[in-house]
Each structure stands twice: as structure tokens, then as C-alpha cells.
Design brief:
The chain is built from 12 helices and 10 strands. By secondary structure, it is α+β, with helices and mostly antiparallel strands. Bound molecules: phenylalanine.
Length: about 350
């Protein structure tokens, strides 16, 4: 009986030491000194061999119960430590998700994205859908199919970025304009065709109004009787909606593109005052797009019959008209990722352009 009394005392000591352990190291030391190889409980287990019969059985069961109790107490205390550590972390890493975003820290929508969206809205309203094509093009899609043969001077004008020649000698290019999407669209769809294709374009050129990567939006309308009058009306309507004015000063200049005949470049009236550009005022002009009636060779390259379909195409600089609309003086700044510039010229993420609510 004195044995079981001693065991009860040992139990009480161990359990209260465990419950009072101040940290995990103390707890671990207690585990080793009780249940470890040379721990008090283990030593007693070893001593069982000297007892016999009933006595061994009773003492063995008592020791086992003690072992289980101590093990559970240690696990319980460990769980408390874990919970306390978690509580401490939660307290320091607390984030109040109900706090409103501080405006200073909110990101802005880049003017190019905003203007892109505005263009899609306006042409969407005129019945155009949006088409796409790859940035890396074959020579044929970028030039050949667009009636620009190998020796044509327009190839030099495009300041093309070429990839290294492939085994067969052909070279892929970074598309110099969005016009290859004209060909891809003709190949993929049945007339009547009415698409715009906004996207990135690349030319080895850099100054205040040119960057090596820039954005264009292509337009293509093909059906049986679309003519130059439709082209002019469509672009005038676009400019009025886009610039949100009743009248826009526009100038259609006879020009030349291998893929259109006749061809026109379109300038928009503007003025530069102290490096600021304003649209619709002053006597300066800014070229914003090239356009014309799609050349029969191009229609043929697209797999259609120029005796059955005709129409117009245009290619407009997205960044350019963005600069004009929002009075942004230097195109290069568009792509410098300067946070101050982005905060100044960027748009609120919820300011989604739509015709009903006003574009800007
Ligand atoms: N692709 C021409 C350019 O980049 C623009 C253009 C497109 C002109 C379609 C006419 C028709 O300059």
C-alpha cells in the first residue's frame, strides 16, 4: 500500500509540474525525466521484474495508468502552448479587412487600358466586334499578304524588329502594325465583316511621340457595297464619341499604303501650349490614323473574292489618341512605370468607360 501511496504522490508531483511548466523546453525536460529511457516512470517499469505474480500485475497496471496520464498531461500542455503561440500571432498579424482602402495606396488603371476600353465601347456601339492576332508574326502576314512585296520600300519605313532567320531562311517579325489581323480575320470569317483589332505593335523608333512598343487599333469592314463615304462617316462618328465633343476638326489627307487604294491619312486638330496638347483648338495637326479602301490583292490574300466584297480598313494609334484626349505630353512616359505619373494620369479602377454613363 505504501507503494501505491508513493506512486500517487509521484503522480501528483508530475502532473502539477507539467501543468505549471512555463515553456516548451521545461515541458520537454519533464518528459525526459519521467518517460525518457532513464525517467522515473521508466525506471519503475524496469523494477517490475523483481516482483512476482499478482503484485507485478497490480504494480504494472498502476504504472501503465501513470504513464498514460503523464503522456496525456504533456500533450495537453503542449496543445496549450501551441494555442497561445497562435493567439499571439493572430494578435500581431491582425488585418482589419473592414477598413476602407486608403486612396493613396489604391492602384490606377493605365491610360492605355482605359482608352483601349473606350475605343471598344464606341466601336461596339457601331456594331463592330473585337478580333485578335499574335504579336510575333510571319513575314507573310505582316507584309506579303498586305501587298508589300519583298523589295517594297514600305518595309524599310516600318523599322521592323526581325527574329533570327530560321533554317529555311524565313524570319519571324514583331508585328509592325495590327494590319495582319485583317488577313487572319478574312481567313476565319464570312463577310459581312465588321471588326476592330486593338493590340500591341513594335517598331524600332523612339522620340517624344514614338516608342518601340506602342498600341494600334485596326478596323476592317467588308461587305458588298461599303465605300469611302462609310469610312469617313465612321471615323468622324468615332472621333466625336471618343473625344466627347459635338464637332472635331479632322483632316483627310491623300496618302499611300500598299494595302489600301485609295488611301488617306487622318489628322486631328490640336495645339501645343507649354508642352501641353489640347484637341480641337489651335492650328496644329496630329496624325492619328491611316486608312483606305482595302486593296483587291489583300482581299485575295485573305481568301475572299474582290469582285464580290469590298470595304475599308484603318489603323489608329491608341496611345496617340490617348495623349490627345487626356493632354499627356510625352509618349515615352506611358511605358516608364513611374508611380507618380501613373497616379496622376491613371484612372480609378471603378471608372469603367461606357456610353450611357459617359466615357470619361
Ligand atoms: N497599318 C498602317 C500603319 O501602321 C495603318 C493602316 C491600316 C492604313 C489600315 C490603312 C489601312 O501605318
Amino acid at each position: 500500500m505504501s507503494d501505491s501511496g508513493e506512486l500517487a504522490t509521484l503522480r501528483d508531483e508530475l502532473i502539477s509540474a507539467i501543468n505549471e511548466a512555463a515553456d516548451e523546453q521545461t515541458l520537454e525536460d519533464l518528459r525526459v525525466s519521467s518517460l525518457g529511457k532513464k525517467g522515473v516512470v521508466s525506471e519503475r517499469m524496469k523494477g517490475l521484474g523483481q516482483l512476482d505474480g499478482e503484485a507485478r500485475k497490480t504494480a504494472g497496471q498502476a504504472l501503465n495508468r501513470l504513464k498514460v496520464e503523464v503522456t496525456e498531461a504533456i500533450a495537453g500542455r503542449q496543445a496549450e502552448f501551441k494555442q497561445a503561440a497562435l493567439d499571439a500571432r493572430l494578435a500581431t498579424e491582425f488585418v482589419d479587412v473592414t477598413l476602407p482602402v486608403r486612396p493613396r495606396n489604391a492602384g490606377t488603371i493605365h491610360p492605355v487600358s482605359q482608352v483601349w476600353e473606350e475605343i471598344v465601347q464606341v466601336f461596339g456601339d457601331l456594331g463592330f466586334s473585337v478580333a485578335e492576332g499574335p504579336h510575333i508574326e510571319t513575314d507573310w502576314y505582316n507584309f506579303g499578304a498586305l501587298n508589300i512585296p519583298d523589295d517594297h520600300p514600305a518595309r524599310q519605313e516600318h523599322d521592323t524588329f526581325y527574329f533570327n532567320p530560321r533554317e529555311d531562311g524565313s524570319r519571324m517579325v514583331l508585328r509592325t502594325h495590327t494590319s495582319p489581323v485583317q488577313i487572319r480575320t478574312m481567313q476565319d470569317s464570312e463577310p459581312p465583316i465588321r471588326i476592330i483589332a486593338p493590340g500591341r505593335t513594335f517598331r524600332c523608333d523612339s522620340d517624344q511621340t514614338h516608342t518601340p512598343m506602342f498600341h494600334q487599333v485596326e478596323g476592317l469592314v467588308l461587305d458588298e457595297d461599303t465605300h469611302l463615304g462609310h469610312l469617313k462617316w465612321c471615323l468622324e462618328e468615332f472621333c466625336k464619341s471618343f473625344f466627347e465633343v459635338d464637332e472635331v476638326k479632322m483632316r483627310f489627307r491623300a496618302s499611300h499604303f500598299p494595302f489600301t487604294e485609295p488611301s488617306m491619312e487622318v489628322d486631328i486638330g490640336c495645339s501645343w501650349v507649354d508642352g501641353q496638347v489640347k484637341i480641337g483648338v489651335g492650328d496644329d495637326w496630329m496624325e492619328i490614323l491611316g486608312s483606305g479602301m482595302v486593296h483587291p490583292n489583300v482581299i485575295r490574300a485573305g481568301g475572299l473574292d474582290p469582285d464580290k466584297v469590298q470595304g475599308f480598313a484603318f489603323g489608329m494609334g491608341i496611345d496617340r489618341i490617348g495623349m490627345l484626349k487626356y493632354g499627356i505630353p510625352d509618349l515615352r512616359a506611358f511605358f516608364e512605370a513611374d508611380l507618380r505619373w501613373l497616379r496622376h494620369y491613371g484612372f480609378h479602377p471603378l471608372q469603367v468607360p461606357n456610353l450611357a454613363g459617359g466615357l470619361s
